[in-house]
Design brief:
mainly alpha, 19 helices, 0% strand, globular
Length: 379
Amino acid sequence: MGKKLNITTFIFIIVNLLFVAKYLARIVGLWCIVAVLVILALYVMFFKYAMPFIVERKKWHKPIFLFLLCLVCSEIFLQYYINPFSVKVDRWSALYYPIQNLLNGSYPYGAQTHLGGYASPFPIWLLIHIPFYLCGNVGLSFFVFLAFFLLSVYKIQGKQYLLPCFILISISPAILYEIMVRSDLIGNMLLLAGLINIVVNKINTCWLEKNYLIIAFVSGLLMSTRLVCIIPIGMLILPYFFKMDVKKQLLFVVVTAFVFILTFLPFVMMDWNLFWNFEYSPWMLQTRQGHVIDFILFVPLFCYMGLTWKNSEMEYYRNVATMLFAFICITFLHTMCVTGSFNLFSAAYDITYFTMSFPFCILSIVLKYVHNAYRDTCL
């Protein structure tokens, strides 16, 4: 079995080590360097030896899966046990209070978080979280989207791919951190990755032309959860988009943009002046991290990554994970050069954005390992 660590494995390990280094340093100081090195060694051993071994030992799958389900239950308990107001991360309250305003008939984006900031969730993401708000914990959405993501893997790739995906999610300190602070970021990407996983092996020019209005409609809705969703969606469609009829190309773009804009219409009607003039509008908060000049790098990289995966699920997931990781790296590096602040662990840089790549990293890694395991079995 091939045991080289590929780019997505590298991204998965590096981002997790960043989380360990940042948050463990606050507790044990310089000893965190030793901890990082130990965890790095454990990750390398896991990917080179343990992962292939687990994939091949089918009789171990059921007990490990049951153990992981118990782990998820304990994480739900911990999420409730931890007082969210004691957490210095306001992603949960950036959903909770706007929904509270919305259900009370007030303008949602005027709500402040428990840390005094302002909310940036787009309209569809707010609506999706209303059931979780009514349950008293918007962080529960992670577990629903995790179940959906794993179900998509089970239905599309097969049960032999399910356990490795579940294991990788469970051994990630970065994802555990996201769960404990009730962050919605990783849940958003799990939902998107699950939906893409259902269609990625179906998509071709004929299929896209036949279903382009539905795909455009869904794309507009997904962009109204988080603007960065345009990267995986665009890379999925790009190899086939240019082969479509020009009229259908234009209609696809128009319908996507129209649906996206339409989701904001109720808020525009609710308070026109506040929506367009408010300093902390969702538009500003979701675009303030980037720099216009970065698109000189983003666009060619996006086109290259989007056009070179054709007909390979594993390469698609690898390219999306690489693009999302590079997107954050370039943004942070530009900010560092402009501000002169090179401390990645300072409040100026939110390293949780790196976790956006994780669902795609995990799918790429698992497709590689399981494919290699079954190929070696047949030899």
